[in-house]
Amino acid sequence: RTSWLAKLTNGLRKTGASITTVFTGTRIDDALYEDLESALLMADTGVKATEHLLEDLKRRVKDSKTTDPAAVKGLLVQSLTDLLLPLQKPLLIGQFKPTVIMVAGVNGAGKTTSIGKLTRHLASDGASVLLAAADTFRAAAREQLGVWADRNTVDIISQDGGDPAAVSFDAVSAGKARGRDVVLVDTAGRLPTQLHLMEELKKIKRVIQKTGPLADQAGESGASSIPPHEVLLVIDGNTGQNALNQVKAFDDTLGLTGLIVTKLDGTAKGGVLAAIARERPIPVYFIGVGEKLEDLETFNAQEFAQALLS
Ligand code: GDP
Question: What keywords does the record list, in alphabetical order (predicted)?
Fold first, then answer.
């Protein structure tokens, strides 16, 4: 745990440095709040979250009656933690067999890598995983996913060309037939502005839904049991406000249940999580803190706020 936190702290240094220097002065005055406002905006916290944080912080400062700028930093950690707390939620599997998780994102966000890491995370928790390569266009994408499948020794369902929705359907059916705990569906990278590709994502979701309800542990199969049970978006934390726009666009089109935020091991834009919390609070199930298989961590609001402002 310590090593990943160190990585995160180190990675967020670029984001936090300009914010924390605000608290090195001798007085708590308008200038401090103005500098803080600029620093938060520079860190891609966005106007809404920045306003919210400043208001909340001023109230805390008033209540605490402190006159020490250094103490304000601690209060900002609290404000940020409270804002981020709704994003802290675990990804639950095990209710359905299989739990079907669809994963989307723009090219280069770290989707394939994150699926590899997530596979390992789930497998190390004892879950059996089946991967679906629903990117039927790019052979390289399938090969890359295949490498992660080999590393994790899990099955992969893939197909040259053809319909991504059909591959997804086959994979969910295979997951059921083989009694897997989780089916992870990797979709091709796309931009929210590529409307035909966004339609394709909706189709993949619709076709997965057609595989029908799955009985839960109690043998019930209500509406919530219809797969996909999770629709995740992978975003590159280094792209700041752009990432927020992706969250909004993919959520509007597809309905997201969770996020994976990558590349928090070296970003000046880590404030974007606050913007997400304020503008589209979708749970951050995991954060990526490096390129290796083990560099995936569950998101913790307080640890993140502390790492950012350390
Ligand atoms: P995809 O196009 O979304 O599938 O992206 P990839 O999974 O191929 O990742 C794109 C690049 O980002 C690769 O070089 C990955 O190693 C790198 N990457 C992914 N996640 C992280 C992360 O959390 N930290 C760092 N530093 N690099 C990452």
Answer: Cell membrane, Cytoplasm, GTP-binding, Hydrolase, Membrane, Nucleotide-binding, Receptor
Q: Is 143 in the pocket of ligand 1 (CB under 6 A)?
A: no
**pLDDT at residue 189, as a whole number:** 93
Beta carbons of 264 and 290 less than 8 angstroms apart: no
2: confidence class by pLDDT, cuts 50, 70, 90: low
Asked whether the CA dihedral 134, 294, 266, 70 is positive or negative, the reply is positive
Strand duo 129-133 + 182-186: pairing: parallel
The residues, any chain, with a CB within 8 Å of residue 100's CB and separated by 6 or more, are: 172, 175, 182, 183, 185, 208, 211, 227, 228, 229, 230
203 labelled binding-site residue: no
| HEC sequence for 89-101 | CCCCCCCECCEEE
C-alpha closest to that of 306 among 84, 126, 154: 84
pLDDT tens column, 215-240: 777 777 777 789 999 999 999 999 99
Q: What is the rounded (10 degree) CA torsion for 208, 209, 214, 220?
A: 170
Q: How far is the CA of 170 from the centre of ligand 1 (A)?
A: 27
Q: Is residue 110 within 6 Å of ligand 1 at its C-beta? A: yes
72 annotated as ligand-binding: no
Calpha distance 38→35 (Å, rounded): 5
Residue 273 CA to ligand 1 centre (angstroms):
18
Model's pTM, two decimal places? 0.95
